[in-house]
Amino acid sequence: MTTIDSTDGLVETSARDGGQDNNKTDLNGLPGQSQSPIGPTEISNSDDDDSQSEDALPTPPESDDGPSPNLAPSQPTDLEWPTETEEPGNQEAEPAKKNHEPGLNDTDEQENKAQVVEGSNNNENEKRDGKEGEKEEANGNEGVRKGDGDEDQESNEEEQEKVQPDSGEEESKESEGGNGENGGESKEIEEENRENGGESKENEEERKDVNANEEVSVDTAAKELESWARTLVEDEDPESMMDDSPSRLEWLRLKREDNQENVHLDRIMSMVGHEKIKAHFLAMKMRMDMAKRWKVDVEEPKADLILYGNDGTGKKRIAQIYAEFLYSIGVIAHRTFERSSGHSLEDNGSKATVTFFDQADKIDRTTEVPAILDIVEKRSDPVVLIFSFTNLSKDSRNALYSTSRCRNRLPDPIVLENYNENEVFQLLKRMAKTRPDFEHVQEEERDAILRFLARRIRQGSEGAMSKKFGNIYTLKRELDKMTVRWKRRTLRELTEWSKNYASTQGGEVDEKKIEEQMMKLGGVTLDDAIGSNPPDVRNESKAWKTIQGMVGLKSVKKEIEHLFNLAQFNHKRERQGKPGLPIPLNRCFLGDPGVGKTTVARLFASIVTELGLVSKGQVILKTPNDLIGEYIGESEKYTRDALEKAQGNVLIIDDAHMLYRSNRCGRNNSDQYRVGIIDTLVANITPGEDRCVILCGYPQQMEEMILNSNPGLQRRFPMENALRFHNYNDDELCQILDLKLAQDQVVASDHALKVARQVLSRNRTRPRFGNGGDVENLACRARLRQVERLRALNENYMFEMQEDPLGPEDFDPDFDRSTRADKNRDDVFRGMVGFEEIVKQFRGYQKMADGMQLFGVDPKPHIPWAFVFKGPPGTGKTTTARKVGKLFYDMGFLSSDEVIVCSISDLIGEYSGQTGPKVLAQFEQGLGKVLFIDEAYRLQGGCSSFHNEAIGELVDIMTKPRYVGNMVVILAGYGDDMENLLASNQGLRSRFPTHIVFPHMTPGHCLQHLIHTLSKLNITFCDDNLEDSTSAEGDIVAEAFRQLIRTKGWANGRDVETIAKNIIGFVFMKAAEEKTSRKPSLSVSFLDLVRFLLEMLRERNNIKRGSPDPPALKDLARRAGLI
Q1: For residue range 705-741, what is the model confidence (pLDDT) as tens digits?
Q2: Which fold has domain 816-997?
Q3: What is the distance between the alpha carbons of residues 356 and 713, in angstroms, rounded to a whole number?
């Protein structure tokens, strides 16, 4: 009965009682029958398993036709090469056959050939004694053969009876019977050897003495070799191979022309690929032949071997054959072998002549190889060292050649490259010969299936040394998966046939009928290799349904749906024998905080697993902090470990933008730890591998990282394949809030939900708006405010919370600010003199917004957001900007009434490439607020290209949706200078279409501003008629202000405030001097006011103290009565 062990993944074969034919086993899914023509009793009849893991196929659900038992394909281990009998299928009958046909468990032909050749090889070995040589070869080959199979005890006993060391004569007869042609050929070779001088009897006796004195038995050597490696592929006759290997062709020439024979060379030449190894074997033999021909004593032939290749390239098998080969050509004195899986040897008196380090990657210190040489060179016989490397790191290379003694002895590594597509096809052909699912397949159809399979296996396995290709292990897994599909299909069809037969013919189905039907069903088909058309995963995928239920994310859903379509399209192309289109699995997920990047990444992992794009589908979540090491080299190690763990899985690196840092010029300023992580990702990630890597981060920073770091990062993570998560709009945010409240079983009134929408709309303009995260925060704050509100009203608020819905004040304590906009506007501009026209203009914007909201129109696109404030200094431009922030906040257009004031120095960079990032940083800071650029005309007057760069950046930013309508931008400056600035760039004027002109203050406005400023400290004028311009005092004050306005550099309100400061100082000094019992009054006389005005006029006209006043000032002083 053939069963599949789900624990270790190896197929175990056991003979039925009495050697019963393996085509008669139980059929669980066939009603009323006890025999099955397809082998396993535990076979699923479910649909195809294309989407399952290469390493483990999960048990499919039971179908209507019968039970669905556990079924798992075989998995070769990395430590041993699995045996040929580990293939799935029916192989029980093979050991019972007397006439040994080529098969998985049949190595007698090679053994007999080896016995004859080893006993009579021309120009190779000293001739062995007849029976002793046959006995030794029988034991040795039997030891190797026992490692090649996993037969049951009866089969093993049968094999052992054939090759008992004590029955060498019988075995020789059996060998001659099973390989008569080879036996005759061997006799001819012996005769030829005798004619050519052959080996003398003295040499035979000498070899017998050596063998008799060996401390380690032949059986022990065979068992040691057995543990080195086992093979999945049968050896073939080198003459029947169709490749163009130069070494194989040269060996065939030597066999043909010089009658040379060597069973181990035949085995190595029958391997697929690995021309360098074949050439090495052949060169070693020719070197020893040459030495024997010239009777030169070769004491140290330098036979050490270093193998470097990926798993599944046959390193251990080559080492196994090489050890026997060296003994066969006389390089080593006796067959004593040892294997080490560590990095050193123990000096335990071993007499081994071949030492094999099967995990030589552990050797990475410069003291280890010299220590090994010290031990082996103490032995009485020369020792050959064989090293097997999978990675061969820099440290291992340094260790191998650390001293001159090492460099003189050890050769260069021989690289075993991955099998190419043609070699994969040749290997599959050999493996298919012994698989029952190919037994009834025509050769042409078989080759078509295997060529397709070879092409699919090699697709995406880039590079001759790519680590992602498992070579022979991958081939076995793919064949196992195909066998599973064949068995499931056959069982399903056979079960359906048996039901129909029983219903139409009546009675039970006999074995003969089953066998006939099995013959009709045949072996594997192309459908078994490809898999049947899979159902649309979208219909059953829970992950896809979850994504579909998420709010927003239209572009993300569209991209994932494209992934489904592409997977189905590729499956159809495979059925047509065409290669599938590449499906990019390594993606960037770009979006601001709270848009669901990490959540969708986890669901994306489930989808690519369901589509069979990765084999396992486990999600491995990392952050930059998990990858950044403390010491040099640790970051690379952590990254490699994460990538290795992610093989067959999905690796998500959240906040990946933190792997990159830029300087003020926008250039790469990352430290060596972050650079090491990026470089390791680039070096170890290639398209088409069984792994999905997702980088999640903020859009701008991620794009900078992709463009400015390692150039290979763009090819691994193309930005055109990135999934972009756009910020949620107002409707989507409200949907998320509704879902959150429903999840928490919280009720909110309609008015409250309307206010919540307004709050979210304002918050969306902030630089780091959290999207879904901010919605959760808003709901949480509302609950807390509700608790405080109800607690203030009633002590039993806990009960009322269940009944009382959330109110508008819970979402925004100042929710009714828009109803107080008119009053707030008047309060904002109260005290500002001469701003009637400006106030009127902003009142118009306010009314327009109110009217649009009445008709459900969003006023944001129609309200101006970019202003130019033009006017002389001191006319209130900066003050008005601050008022604008408050106005727009009250109208609900800004998230804050804050005003960000910047100057030109905040925008202009010091070095090339620094200006753009500085301008962008100011706009980022002003999002949701007012950005006020004072003295903006200085942008046009600069003497460097940085000023023009700032203007260009300003024009560009004002067109980006992120900033347009989400902030108020004001350029302020003097009238003519601002006109020159707007004329310097054609796009600047169109970006700032709304101009507000601030004129000079009139004398009356100056006096009003002065009175208002002094009143803040309760300072008054003694004369009440100063504001009356028709009075004498009022006319004198007005004339003084008119003369001040005409002076150069008059700063309007600021200069008025300067006069006010002087008066304030004078008043309080005077009050301090009047130390009376009653509190002195804070007042200013008309004459004192005129003196302060005349003092500023003298200062502005540069009149020195003691110099005569000009006529205009004398006239004012005379009219005021000062002179």
Answers
A1: 888 888 888 888 988 889 999 888 888 888 888 888 8
A2: Rossmann fold (3.40.50)
A3: 41
